[in-house]
């Protein structure tokens, strides 16, 4: 399983919750070759979802052009201090990762 995501969720003025996520992943494009000249198979995050109180607040699809260890920022209306934000991803190999943060 991949390393845990680093997630920070903060409540800002106006009831906006800002979320910052660092996802540890190799994000291999499938276009590079190894030292023997063989193509390294594609392995990258395909789907990302974020939920708050069971509601989806973000749904995204990634492709091979996203950099290694991607950082993603997003915001949504609502949220209160102490609420949980859950971020999940699935990659091209079918591996999954899900982590959560408490809104501060």
Task: Output the structural class.
Answer: mainly beta
Number of strands: 7
**Which CATH class is shown?**
Mainly Beta
Could you say how many structural domains there are in total? 1
Assign the CATH topology.
Immunoglobulin-like
Instruction: Kindly estimate the percentage of residues that lie in beta strands according to DSSP.
Output: over 45%
CATH superfamily: Immunoglobulins
Q: How is the quaternary structure best described?
A: single chain
User: Given the structure, what is the number of helices?
Assistant: 0
Shape: elongated
Helix content percent band? under 10%
Chain-averaged pLDDT:
95
N to C succession of SSEs: EEEEEEE
Strand order, sheet with most strands: 4-3-6-7
Structural descriptors:
single chain; three-stranded antiparallel sheet; mainly beta; Immunoglobulin-like; 104 residues; elongated
Describe this structure in words.
With 104 residues, this protein is mainly beta. The chain has a single domain, classed as Immunoglobulins (Immunoglobulin-like), CATH 2.60.40. Helix content is 0%, strand content 48%. The protein contains no helices and 7 strands. The strands form 2 sheets. The protein has a 4-stranded antiparallel beta sheet with strand order 4-3-6-7, with no helix packed on it. It is elongated, with a radius of gyration of 16 Å. The two termini are 28 Å apart. The mean pLDDT is 95.
């Amino acid at each position: 399983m991949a390393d845990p995501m680093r997630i920070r969720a903060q409540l800002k003025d106006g009831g906006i919750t800002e979320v910052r996520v660092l996802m540890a992943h190799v994000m291999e494009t499938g276009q590079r070759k190894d030292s023997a000249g063989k193509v390294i198979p594609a392995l990258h995050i395909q789907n990302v979802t974020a939920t708050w109180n069971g509601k989806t607040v973000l749904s995204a699809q990634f492709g091979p052009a996203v950099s290694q260890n991607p950082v993603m920022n997003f915001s949504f209306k609502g949220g209160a201090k102490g609420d949980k934000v859950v971020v999940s991803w699935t990659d091209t190999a079918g591996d999954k990762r899900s982590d959560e943060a408490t809104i501060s």
